[in-house]
Structures are given as C-alpha cells and as structure tokens.
Amino acid sequence: MPGMDHATEAIGSGRRSASPRLRTAALVIPGAIVVAIGAVLPFVSPLPRDEVVTPASQAALASSSGLWLASAAVAERRDPAGPMWRLLIAMTIGLWIWSIGYLATPLALTISYAIAPLSTAIFVHVLVAFPSGRVRAGRDQSVIAATYAFTLASGALRMATLPGDWNLLFLTDDPVAVEASRWASLGVPILGSVVAWVLIGHWRAAMPVGRRVLLPVLVALPIAFVLESAGYVGDAFGWTTVSDATRSPIAIALGATVPLGILLGLARSRLDRGRVADLLVELGRGVPIGGLRDLLARTLRDPSLRLAFTAPGVSGLVDGDGRPVEIPDDASRRVVRLDAEGQTLAVLIHDPALDSEDPALLAAVGSAARLALDNERLTAEVRARLAEVSASRARIVEAADEERRRVERDLHDGAQQRLVALALRLDAARGPDGTDPVLERATAELREAIAELRGLARGIHPTILTESGLQAAIESLAERSPIPVDVQVTPARFAGPVEATAYFVASEGLTNVARSSHATSASVSAEVDVTDRRLIIRVADDGVGGADPSLGSGLRGLADRVAAAGGTFAVESPVGGGTVLRAELPLR
Amino acid sequence: MSVAARDPARPIRIVLADDATLLREALASALATSGFEVAGQAGDVAGLLRLLEHDLPDVVIVDVRMPPTHTTEGLEAARTIRSTWPGVAVLVLSQYVETRYAVDLIRDDPRGIGYLLKERVTRIADLADAVRRVADGGSVIDPEVVARLMGRPRTHTELDELTRRQRAVLGLMAEGRSNHGIGERLGLEPKTVEGHVGEIFSKLGLEAGLDDHRRVLAVLAWLRES
Asked: Is A576 left (phi over 0), alpha (psi -120 to 50) or beta?
C-alpha cells in the first residue's frame, strides 16, 4: 500500500525478546549492590558522623539512586534496544561515584567533584532525549553537544582553579583563571534556559499522549534548574551556604522527579493494560464500526487516534463513514497495520509517543482491534455467502418455474394444437353421417389423448395462476379436490415467485389432505400481514393428523420451497387433531 | 341490430381468431363444410378487431390465449366485442376448464356468449350446435365446466335432494340451454321440463321466473359458490 512504509509496523506476530526477566535481574542485582554501597559510604566516612549521616541525607541518597536504577530497569523492559535505559544507568553510576566523596580522601573527593558536571550533562541529555532516549537530529543534538562541551570545560576549569589540599587536579590560583571559572558558572542558568526552551518546544509539538509522557521532565526541569543554578551562582559569588544547602538531600531528592515520572508511567501502564480487558469485553458485546475508533482511542488515551479501513473495491483507506483517509508520511504520526491472512484489515494512525509510553499496550490494543475486525470480516463474509446461497436457491427455483411455464406453453402451442386440428380433420373425414367404426374409435382415442395432455400440461403449470392470480388458481384447485375446501384467499396479486410458492403450498397441502388425512373438509387461506409485509398461507384439515415433516418428502419439499422464497414453514399435526400447514412468505 | 334478429335462410357468418394457424385452418374448413360462412381469420386480437371494423359477422370464435402475452387476451376481446358490437355473438375457446372464466364471461350479459373447452371443436356437430345457439342469442357453457361444478365436493347438500332427472335438467340449464333445448335433449315435454325447473329452483332456493339468460348465470353462480 503506498505511503505505508514509513513508520509502519504490523501487528500479528508480536516481538518477543529472550528472557527479559533474566536481563532485568542482571541489571537490577549489581545495580542494587552499587546503590547499597553508595548508601553505606557515609557510615565509613571519616567526616563527622552527625554531619554526613542524617536520616534525610540517607533517605535522599538511597531513594534517589534507587529510583534511577528502577527507572533504568523499567526503560530496559520497555525498549531493550534503545538508549534510554543506558542513560539512566549512567545517571545511577554518576550518583554513586559522587557519593564516593564521603570517603574524604583526596582521590575520592577529587573524583566526586570532577564527576558532578558530567552528571549534570547526562541529566540534561535525559531531559532532552526523554522519553525514548533518542536525540532528534538538529537543534536537540546541538543543545546536547553544547551541554557536554560546556559542562566538561567549565568543570575542568573549576577543578583546575579550586583551591584545597585534597584537589589533586589543582593547577593554578591565577586570578584570571579563578575569575573565569567563577563567571563560567553563570553559564549554567543560560544552559538551563536553553534546555527549558527545547522542552517547551517538545511539549508544544506533542499530542496529548506525548504531553502526558513529558509531564515528569517538565516538573523536574524548573526544580533542577533553580537549584542547580542557585548552586552554581552561589559558588560563583562565594555564597557557600547557599551552595551547601542546594547540594543537600533536598536537591538530590528533587532531581529524582524524572525517574519517579518514569515509574509512575509504569504504574499507569498497568492500569492501561487493565483497560485492555475492558476493551475486549466491549468488543465481545459487538461494537459498530464507527464506535471502534472511539473505544480504541479511549483505551489508548489518544484522542488523536484514527482508524482507517481497507474496503473492497476501494484502492485507498477509508474511515468508518467511508471517507478516504490519507496516511501522513512524516514523523508526527505513527501507523500500525492490522493484518489477517496476509491482507490489511485496517490501520491505526496514532501519536508516536504511544510507542515510547507503552509499546505493549499499543500491541495489545492493536491485537484486540484486529480480532474484532477479523471477526467482523468473517461474519460479513459468512453473511454474504449465505445471502448468495439464498439468492442462488431462489434463482434456481425461479428458473425451474420459468422452465415449467415454457414447457406448458410449448405443449399448448405445439402438440395440443396439432392434435386438436388432427381430431377436427378426422371428425370431418368421417362425414356428417359417418359410422366407420375404425375412424370412430381413432377419434375417441385421440380425444382422450388430448384430455390427458391437457391434464399433464395443467399439472406442469396452471396458467390461471399467472393469468388471474392466487385466488383464482386456488379456487380452481379447490374445485378439483375430492373433499370440500373452504377458500379464503386475498384477491391481491403478488410477485411471480411469491404466487408460485404460495400456490405450491396450497396444491401440495391439498394433495396431502386428499391422500392421507382421511379428512372430511379442508380450508385454504392466504392473507397479507400488512405490518410484517408477509403473505401467510394456511392449509388446514380435520383429518387424522400425525403428519411428520421429517418423513414425508412432500412436506420436506414444501419446507425447502418456502425456504427458497425466504419464508418460514411450520406443520402442526397432532395425532387425531387434524393438520395445519402454515407458510409465511416475505413480500418485497 | 340484435343477435336474435338473424335471417335464418342466410348462412351464419363467422370470424375465427386463433394464433395456431394449423388449427384455425382446420376449423375454418370444418365450419365451411358444415354450412357456415367463414368471413375472416385473425392471428391476434388486434387483427380480429380490425376485421370487425370493416365487416361484422354473426359469430366470432376466439381463443383465450393469444399474442402478445398468451394469457387471457381472448376473454378481454370477447368483452370488448360484446360491448362494442352487441349484434356479434362470441364463442370463447379455452385450453383449460376454468369455471371462474366461464362465470366472469357471462356475468355482464349472458346473451350471445359462450365458453367452450378448446378440444370440444373436434366434434363438429357440437361446435355447430354451440355456434348456432350463441348466434341465436343464447348462452353456451361447456359441459365439462358444468360437470366440474356439479361434481364439486360440497358441505351443503341441496343437490342431493334433486332426483337424477332433475340433476340432468340442472346441468343442461347450466350449459345455457333453453327449456325447449332441454326437452329435446332429454326427450321430455316442455311442460315436464318446466315442472322440473320450478322444483329445482325451489329446492336450491333460487329466484323463480328468470328468463333463460338470467337463469344460466344464477345456476352457475349457485353451483360455484354453494
């Protein structure tokens, strides 16, 4: 299908990664050990115990790195091939390395101080690349590159000029360099503003789903921005109290808003997956084709979702109302194909953020929709086949009727006319006073043959039915019956097949009455049920009853014949209670 | 001109309408042999009516089934002829015995009209009799129509109260025969026939004193509906 190659994936196979549980364990167990070591470090610190090991600092440190680790595990589960979980692991490790500073040896302090700018850069990387971890080419890439360059350069300058016996990287106390380092710190708020500008751009471009996903980073950004900036500005102007305060556990904990957001997203996904069950229940009840889109949009919480169908005889895609649907060929939308038996039933056009928010939810909803549509398709197919079979059965019956009419007409126009003419000539040949016994007998036999042929032709097709309708034909039928028949038939005319079927019911019914019911009287009625647009034919007798439609081929044939006309046929024949045949024929 | 006012010395003039050419020719020659004058032949109703516009015969013999629809053109043509040219008698030939058609045909005016089973024409004497009767303004109903009506199963049994002879008289009345004709057929005195007719009418609960024409319709209707 044209235009579907872009950002398209098919639902049907489902991607399966090898033992995701094992991989998560491989990530979480060593990570937890690292986090635990980080949390224990303050206890082995030679620094005054009551300054470094406060409940708040411990809680902040452990929960923050724990949250980063957990979010890394979640991200890995969702997108094992993507870079997001690696970034989050880098954040976790950054925090751990930072906490090495608690050992308070010159090396440990140097490493701890030196890693801090890198952590900031990774944090910005996470924010800009959120939620997929992939950085969009262009502006975003430039911003991240600039962030790494700036933080590493300013960090290096800072380490080189930061006085202290412990600083192994101290190079110079040249006032120009020190001054430069201090002013470089002012770059952090500028950087923060740029990142904020980028994220606001993401927010504006995002659809509702994307905005929901972006929410945690948008909350984290201003907090991290204010605290970090305050810290750097404090450093720059020597307000160490501010700096110390911002490096406090509060800052660390608030920086964890991003991993917290990722984890909350997970919790929401669980709820969303619960809604897949609701979706299946709703689909099981049967959803009109127009209602399917709304239902899927609700389950995926993507109001922008569109559902487009393939339709027989239409080259492109159409929506539930049959209007053509164009597939956007840019990155603003993603397309999921719903396939069955190698043919595309429909496509879901959705917010690309759904992929990163919860690809499994999308896959589940896609599968449910595919099942519903496939079911719809199969049902429609069965219905179409049934309609086709009914129509062909009706056509076969009509063709047989037409053939009988033709045979009757041929007999009438051909053999009968010839025989009558022949008899006439024979009679004339006999002369006015003819008494030739041979001729006499031949003429008599010929007359009998003509009468027989007449009976045969009438049996093949009663012309009075087509000439004068059901009432006349059934009255004529009743006159020929050996027992009295009360006829109550509407004088109305109906379509040929309806009249033929109704007549067949009356004729077969009366034949059965005469043959096996031992009835003393019978009745035939045919009335129109105006509200239901049906012709109801009823043949009743006061005979012995006990007729079994499954045994008598006559009744079986009647039922078939009525069914071919789209009607219903019922036999009521209690033993000793007479027989009632009732056929209802739809009038179209 | 009325159907009854015919010069008995002049041969009865007939127009034939039937799309079966072979039969029509055979019929024409048989009628000519029997002393009738075949004034014209037509293969369909339009042709028949064109013939009549130029020259009115005494009797038209018309087949029920004719082009274009091969259904009941002949019946409609008979009604048209009877209402347009009351002086022309019509004998309708029908493939099948349909009592409804017989009754419908004579319902408006039973004079000068007849309904015969087609194969009846194979007995020239019978056909000639029927032609003469309609030409004289009588009604003719095929004996098979009457037999069907007489033999129809009934829940009411007024017919059972009739004697064999009375049943025969009733059948001949239904065929459209006059008292005189009935007497001839059964070898009875006109007075005797009149007696039977009176008794039949009272047993069947029919209105007495109807003329011959009205009588046919009353008897047929009674036979068909009771």
From this structure: left
Taking each helix axis as running N to C, give the angle between helix A417-430 and helix B21-33, from 0 to 180 degrees, rounded to the nearest 10: 20
Handedness of CA A392, A393, A396, A397 (dihedral sign): negative
Q: Is A434 on the interface with B (CB under 8 A)?
A: no
Q: Is the pLDDT of residue B113 over 60?
A: yes
CB distance from B96 to chain A under 8 Å?
yes
Residues pairing with B16 in the sheet: B41, B61
Between β-strands B113-117 and B89-94, what pairing exists: parallel, antiparallel or unpaired? parallel
Inter-chain contact A417–B22, Cβ cutoff 8 Å?
Answer: yes
Helices (H), ranges, A256-312? 257-285, 289-300
> Confidence class of residue B44 from pLDDT cuts 50, 70 and 90?
very high
**A201: Cβ–Cβ under 8 A, 6 or more apart, which residues?**
A139
Sheet architecture: strand order including A568-572:
A485-489, A522-529, A534-541, A579-586, A568-572
DSSP codes, A350-416 = E-THHHHH-HHHHHHHHHHHHHHHHHHHHHHHHHHHHHHHHHHHHHHHHHHHHHHHHHHHHHIIIII
Between CA A192 and CA A128 the distance in angstroms is 11
Q: What's the DSSP call for residue A324? A: E
Residues of chain A predicted below pLDDT 70:
1-18, 50-53, 216, 220, 224, 227-255, 262, 265-270, 289, 356-357, 431-434, 549, 551-553
Rounded CA gap, A330 and A349, in Å? 12
| Closest to B124 measured CA to CA, from A431, A436, A446, A441 | A431
CB contact under 8 A, A427 and B122: yes
The whole-number pLDDT of residue A40 equals 79
Say how many C-beta atoms besides its own lie within 10 A of residue A536's C-beta: 18
- SS3 (DSSP) at B119: helix
What does the pLDDT average to over B184-198? 91
Residue B86: per-residue pLDDT: 92
Query: What ipTM, to 2 d.p.?
Result: 0.86
State residue A10's pLDDT score: 57
Which residue reads 């009767």 in tokens?
A: B133
| Average of per-residue pLDDT across B74-80 | 92
The pLDDT of B120-135, averaged and rounded, is 91
Cα separation of B17 and A243, whole Å?
Answer: 125
For residue range B96-110, list pLDDT tens digits in order: 888 889 888 888 888
Question: Edge-to-edge, what's the strand order for the sheet holding A334-340?
Answer: A8-11, A334-340, A343-350, A306-310, A317-318, A324-325
Mean pLDDT of B38-57: 94
> What does the pLDDT read at residue A52?
64
Most A CBs within 10 Å: which of B16, B21, B41, B98, as the mutation test of the A interface?
A: B98
d(CA B113, CA B138): 7
Q: Strands A317-318 and A485-489: what pairing? A: unpaired
Taking the CA of residue A428 and the nearest CA in chain B, the distance in Å comes to 6
Q: Tell me the C-alpha distance between B177 and B222, whole Å.
A: 17
pLDDT attached to residue A8: 53
d(CA B187, nearest CA chain A) in Å:
22
∠ CA(A548), CA(A550), CA(A555), 5° rounding? 70
Integer-rounded Cα Rg, in Å, for chain A is 46
Task: Give the integer Cα–Cα distance in Å for B45 and B43.
Answer: 7
Asked if A479's CB is within 8 angstroms of B99's CB, the reply is yes
Q: Kindly give the interhelix angle for A208-237 and A257-285, rounded to the nearest 10 degrees.
A: 170
Closest-CA residue in chain B for A454? B96
CA A98, CA A29: separation in Å to the nearest integer? 20
Distance from CA of A408 to the nearest CA of B (A): 11
pLDDT at site A304 = 84
